[in-house]
Amino acid sequence: MKLLKPLFDNNREWAKRITEETPDFFEQLAKQQTPEYLWIGCSDSRVPSNQIIDVMPGEVFVHRNIANQVVQTDINCLSVIQYAVEVLKVKHIMVVGHYGCGGVKASMSDSERFGLIDHWLDHIRITYNKYSAELEQLSEADKFNRLCELNVIEQVGNVATSTIVQQAWKRGQDVAIHGWIYGIDNGLLNDLDVTVDHTMWKK
What we know:
- By secondary structure, the chain is an alpha/beta fold.
- About 45% of the residues lie in helices and about 15% in strands.
- A five-stranded mixed sheet has the order 2-1-3-4-5.
- The protein is globular and about 55 Å long.
């Protein structure tokens, strides 16, 4: 007897619906993946990449972690970026944060500690300190929202300075990096206007 049977039932219904709409969909999907997009997002269950931008499987390559971090020592994330850029030849990398991010909120606590994840959250605390003059002028709610945005902006920079992207640009590869943020309360994406590509990036 399968545990979580409703999820298997949902899967069967989903596969049936897709096959009825596009009979050869899974046959074609199994042959290759050719996404133009890499989505680097938060692990938060309320932020599902494919549904948010309304694309089918195979159209977006995805990496998710707590608070959508791009850390230069994170081999997992860097391996995803390398595969996406060098093998899949994606044209766009979107770093997508969201308002109400629990990781960002936890990083703002001076007194409470959360265990292993504190090491991960230190990267966001560094961002907070970098922009503290701006952030300290804001209300708590606005400060939280702004730090969610600043976290995305910093990660865009981290992607751009990675050796993977730098080498791709030197090769003349067409890949742009975008910083977006998602509103859980309204379902809308917002562009933070920090897009960079090889024509814009200055070391």
